[in-house]
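TEACHING EXERCISE
Course module: macromolecular assemblies
Task: Read the component lines below, then compare them to the predicted structure of the full complex.
Student: A.B.
Group: 4
Components provided:
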Amino acid sequence: MRSEYKLIFERSHAGRKGYDLPKLDVPELDSLIPSDMQRTEDLKLPEIAEIDLVRHYTNLSRRNFGVDNGFYPLGSCTMKYNPKINEEMPALFSDLHPLLDGDMAQGALELMLDMDKALCEITGMDKFTLQPAAGAHGEYTGLMIIKAYHEMRQDTARNVIIVPDAAHGTNPASAVMAGFKTREIKSNPDGGVDLDALRAAVGPDVAGLMLTNPSTLGLFETNIKEIANIVHEAGGLLYYDGANLNAIMGIARPGDMGFDVVHLNLHKTFSTPHGGGGPGSGPVGVKKELIPYLPYPVVMSHHNGPAVLDYDRPLSIGKVKNFFGNFGVIVKAYAYILSLGGKGLREASENAVLNANYVFHHLKGIYGVPHDRICMHECVIEPGELLSLGVHTTDIAKALIDRGYHPMTIYFPLIVHEAMMIEPTESESRETLDEFIAAMRDIARVAKENPEALHEAPVNTPVGRPDEVMAARKPIVKYED
Amino acid sequence: MTPNDRYYTKDHEWILVEGNRAKIGISDHAQDALGDIVYVELPDMDATYDAGESFAVVESVKAVSQIYTAVGGRVVEINEALNDQPELINSDCYNQFIAVFEFENLNTNELLTAEQYEAFVSEG
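Instructor-supplied answer key:
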């Protein structure tokens, strides 16, 4: 069995190859490349027959686990099903060259305009850029817009972004990338923003606050209006991390809550593939007064005339991606929005919230719960009494793999000790959820009867527990024989 | 267990004051909660920080944590051994400082004694 897991290099045999080129019938031109820049030894590439190559990668691909294989409740990631029809749609545009003049690509521009309008309607914002390539890139773009806004007003002392301790790790990282300092504020016992801590943190040096609502604990921030007031009165702007938009489509809008800038993850909320199936797309929407700072070109239509690409944007932060972003992903997400429609999107959010609460309700008596209240589209549990038996979150996650599930998000949010964050999404049937709940029950039963067994998990995978510490401290990133 | 020769913070750092210098590291509770530490981002020498600012980052297999200084001042020494052996914090957290700050003023009002810190940790 072991031989099945050889590396491609270990399968290499000198002289074996999967191609057959005719003999070179023209003189070799070594003189084109200066001799000191010429390679003196052959490239070390695996030498392998076509059939062995195909088998190698086919066998590896069969060990993948994706949302097409099974339940994938990775919290904060919205691993919803990717409808296959959406995958077909970008092909409609495959003959289009990105350097074509706008008037020869009206279909594509109209789609971008329409997508902009749809995202504005869903979020309550006034204009979107579709350029950013993914979530963190959207955060960076949004923060650069906030920076440009303050600088344009000569309000240059604002160099701090406030980030709650429950935030996604990308938030403080993006703020630092954009040249800000971060100021962390603690959550209150309910997992929301501590208003007093926020009041103490705002001031003339604060450029803005980054917030996810619902929060990373899967809880709706009910004080959002008050939070927006505190930040705005202090002269800061409010940034919405759209990671959790899947809970509120058609129900509540960040624009109405007081947010000035939002980024969305089309690859989460709008069903385009992510992880290995990417790329992503992270459109950024802004309120009216921030439109001048959006990356150029901006797709516009004057008086319902033809769509045009506007490059004349003197206040723009510049381009953040070549051409128009990951256009194919935008097409897929557009297809998703059109096929669901306004009502359908609302229903998706309602079912996402219902599914999360269903799972939460059934796991409550078995596992610990840090916040026992109605959750949104994801819920957070803890090992609870299993901890005293020596069973940790890692053990539970590994045991899920043996039972055919992708584990939930673990050890995040950081503010919950041994957190397990479960996001079922709206795609799943009640039967699937019941089977998952039964698996979680079974793991708790094994934990009580034979906790040692869980420390061995997973036993059904080619690799059990890789040494994460060594992998992080001393990674081997290239093949050496 | 918790050495009583130094101060502690509610963010689980320890501060050992020697003259106008303060050694800062993380507590046993912090290293235990983080799990195996795989990387420590040390501050630059001579960098200055206000009290309450983050000056280092500790990354474990579970989480990434900011480390705050309760003392404003200038970095005069960093524990370079942690670059190659971040796990030293796991094995000997009270002898492995992260950085040493030189300060002008020290405000100990917000700081905890070993006894107070133990009580704070056991409250959970």
